[in-house]
Amino acid sequence: MRPEELRSHRWYGGEELRNFSHRTRSRQLGLNPEEHLGKPVIGILNTWGEINPCHMHLRERAEQVKRGVWQAGGYPVEFPVATLSETFQKPTPMLYRNLLSMETEEILRSYPLDGAVLMGGCDKTTPALLMGAASADLPVIFVPAGPMLRGHWRGEPLGSGTDMWKYWDDRRAGLIGDAELAELECGLARSPGHCMTMGTASTMTSVAEALGLTLPGAASIPAVDSAHHRMAAASGARIVKMVWAELTISRVLDGRAFADAITAVLALGGSTNALIHLIAMAGRSRIPLSLDDFDAAARQVPVLANIRPGGAYLMEDFYYAGGLRGLLSRLTDLLHTDRITVSGQTFGETLATARVHDDDVIRTRDNPVAAEGGIAVLRGNLAPGGAVIKHLAAEPKLLWHTGPAVVFEDYGDLRHRINDPALSITGDSVLVLRGSGPLGGPGMPEYGMLPIPDHLLAKGVRDLVRISDARMSGTSFGACVLHVAPESHVGGPLALVRDGDLITLDVPGRALRLEVDGAELDRRRAGWRPPAPRFERGYGALYTEHVTQADAGCDFDFLARAGTNPEPDAR
Ligand code: FES
Q: How far is the CA of 382 from the centre of ligand 1 (A)?
């Protein structure tokens, strides 16, 4: 590609009035022509924000990206885009994933950019940035935020999220008191970076690497390690070369890349959220992907990463043990090694020098954490569109279980009544939460790990079968059936369950059944009335009118469909 062929040249080159205007305003920015004219203009889309502790280092890290861009002969321009903080944004950042994807796509389309560096990591930011980039189809490289350091408490390593749930249950069971809780509050998350368990953030940044959209090894580097600074600068340098090579995202993402991403998720024992995000991401790339693809792969791919919540260690240990490259180097027979990545190397070449330094953190094929991937897709009359369980993180005795339902209408009802003795919840009960799906939540909040009642916790019960149309944090655990589709809010079978109905969970048989005959379900369905609309205006109304169900990725129908979205005329 010659400089006159750069996309940005349409803005800055040429002799028309608008081109003159753009050059005038570049002077106003303090730029001399030789600093940016004829050079790849690189957008740095940064999800840094003062409210987001997982990204608090990305403001500084963008400077290292810029260093790399300048050194490689490009011109960097930083764009602050929405920060989606998993902790603070309510009802859930999932409500806003598609909004960030739209912002990403339209910034890449509407400004004089030749390529982009995407900076994110906290759960929804990674899929949002990549969905938008896939739709815009410029050269892009992803800079993962990196996991935070291990948590720490009284000599014990702590996992963010995972150990929060665990110790909160201990507190409810009366096993720890205020002093211990105050110490835990300080020790659970103690550095910049995303959650350092194999939650959604670690899963999705690993997905970005497995798709071939990061520099090799980038996803496993702790946020505060000096290697993270160097990776950021190298990514800035690399995107400039990608622009000259016209290495667009559509040349990297194909069916093989998504198959390899699924293999990575399963071998990591990754978050169930990955199923929704990968289906949505593949949809933007026009690549068919369904829940059944995950289930088929899950029967073949062993879990090798011994990381919480399904295992024992944390992301910092994983990095020292060899990281994602080390893990994938043990699975090359299951991967497509001849496809191109943003590094310019094939996927196989990026793994060629990878090593594993600790066989307990990254297990061998003959000593896996689990012989099959930790995720199963369930179907049956309770989930005709499918449901998901991370059985790796559940009590094995509950994976084949029939019990009576105890039904909660929504999250408020659950919080209000979970400890009501009148419910008579036992270890055999099946807790059902409805009103928590893409529309009912709204945004499908991570309510799926329903709390265990206090009286059962005190007896040592730590797991129950729980079923909902919600999602679950990747840091959570338990026999939690999630993503039931279609959701109760639109009249899915979950809306028809009544207290005392028997429900069968059969993970080996991949089944989820409501043991009520069809005629009775038809009677209940005839009496069901849809809830009143929640949003009458604003983004919530747009979301309500266009979001798809969990098995279709919860994208907006108008973003997922094919069709033209023309380049702007810059003259
Ligand atoms: Fe940001 Fe967990 S809260 S990754």
A: 31
Q: Is 195 in the pocket of ligand 1 (CB under 6 A)?
A: yes
**Tell me: the pLDDT tens digits for 365-411?**
999 999 987 899 999 999 999 999 998 878 999 999 999 999 999 99
Concatenating the DSSP letter of every residue in 308-365 gives TTTSSB-HHHHHHTTHHHHHHHT-GGGS-TTSB-TTSSBHHHHHTT---S-TTTB--T
| Model pLDDT, residue 550 | 97
For the entire predicted model, the pTM comes to 0.96
**Contact assessment for residue 467 and residue 481, using Cβ atoms and an 8 Å cutoff:** yes
Range of the domain at 161: 152-187
The answer, yes or no, to whether any atom of ligand 1 lies below 6 A from the CB of 54, is: yes
Q: Is residue 487 a contact partner of residue 386, using CB atoms and an 8 Å limit?
A: no
What is the H or E stretch that residue 432 is in? strand 430-433
Please write the tens of the pLDDT for every residue from 261-293: 999 999 999 999 999 999 999 999 999 999 999
Q: How far is the CA of 555 from the centre of ligand 1 (A)?
A: 21
Nearest Cα residue to atom 2 of ligand 1 = 195
Which of 57, 119, 122, 206 has most ligand 1 atoms within 8 Å of its beta carbon, as the pocket-test mutant?
122
Instruction: Give a yes or no: residue 162 inside a domain.
Output: yes
**pLDDT category, 114, cuts 50, 70, 90?**
very high
For residue 201 and ligand 1, the question of a CB distance below 6 A is answered with yes
300 and 388 both lie in a single domain: no
Is 80 exceeded by the pLDDT of residue 476?
no
Helix residue ranges per DSSP H, 216-335? 226-244, 249-252, 255-268, 273-284, 291-298, 315-320, 323-329
> Are 58 and 137 in a shared domain?
yes
Which residue is listed with tokens 């902790």?
87
Phi, psi of 76 (to 5 degrees): -90, 140
Distance 253 CA to ligand 1 centre (A): 26
- CATH code of the domain containing 234: 3.40.50.2300
Residue 570 pLDDT: 80
User: Is residue 17 in some structural domain?
Assistant: no
User: Which has the closest alpha carbon to 437: 410, 469, 411?
Assistant: 469
- The residue whose CA has the least distance to atom 1 of ligand 1 is 122
Q: Does residue 286 share a domain with residue 261?
A: yes
Tell me how far apart the alpha carbons of residues 213 and 250 are, in angstroms, rounded to a whole number: 11
- Please write the tens of the pLDDT for every residue from 42-52: 999 999 999 99
Pocket test for ligand 1, best of 48, 57, 87, 92 (most atoms within 8 A of CB): 87
pLDDT of residue 166: 86
Q: Give distance in angstroms: CA of 550 to centre of ligand 1.
A: 21
Number of folded domains in the chain? Answer: 3
Give residue-wise pLDDT tens across range 539-553.
Answer: 999 999 999 999 999
Q: Is residue 63 part of a domain?
A: yes
Residue 121 alpha carbon, nearest atom of ligand 1: 4
Q: Are 319 and 387 within one domain? A: no
Same-domain status, 68 and 157? no
Tell me: do 299 and 331 sit in the same domain.
Answer: yes
The verdict on 50 and 137 lying in the same domain is yes
Q: Which atom of ligand 1 is nearest to the CA of 201?
A: 4
Atom of ligand 1 nearest to the CA of 160: 2
Query: Is 369 within the bounds of a domain?
Result: no
Q: How many CA atoms are closer than 13 Å to the CA of 17, on its beta-carbon side?
A: 0
Give me ligand 1 centre to Cα 308, in Å. 15
55, 57, 124, 194: residue to mutate for ligand 1 pocket, most atoms within 8 A of CB: 194
Residues 139 and 206 in one domain: yes
122 pocket-lining for ligand 1 (C-beta < 6 Å): yes
